[in-house]
Amino acid sequence: MQVAAAAERDARAKLAEALPRRWRHVQAVATKAQRVSSTLSAEDRPLLIAAAWLHDIGYAPGLATTGFHPLDGARWLRQQGFNERIMSLVAYHSCAIFEAKERGLADQLTAEFVDEESTLKDALWYADLTTGPDGQNFDVLERLAEIRERYGPDHLVTQFWTKAEPVAVAAVRRTEARLAATGQPM
């Protein structure tokens, strides 16, 4: 769990004071990831928790270079020597490839980081996409509606979520099924 502790420390240092609302979201995502981690292998549990702490670190002042937080965060994690899978989970979290395409950054993202199809990735997306901006619990469809409302109909973020929604919902529902199979609440 040392990697998860280091991730929490770094996220706190970069987000808590500078972006308190984002920090509340990250804390709630990490708490949810901790709970969901029981559906993963022992090897993947600390990676999920670390990725949950770090998934939005690319928003931190001084780290945002492209304006695309998954890529900016993953690049910073590389500079800090984090595990390759954690970097990639951050780089691709919550349908980031769809937004990268909208921003013209997909080639950079795919050249630098490897996407994975795994229960670990699904669990991270679940934790993020069922947690609101202030840490509140949402169903994934409620969360996507909240995002669209916050950004407005013409924003790039709303446009990419229109395309990405089926992929995001499927990942969340797979994790919900894993939770239900173990008798855990969602």
TrEMBL record:
It comes from the Bacteria. Residues 22-100 form the HD domain. CDD domains: HDc (cd00077). InterPro entries: HD/PDEase_dom, HD_domain, HDIG_dom. SUPFAM superfamilies: HD-domain/PDEase-like (SSF109604). This is HDIG domain-containing protein.
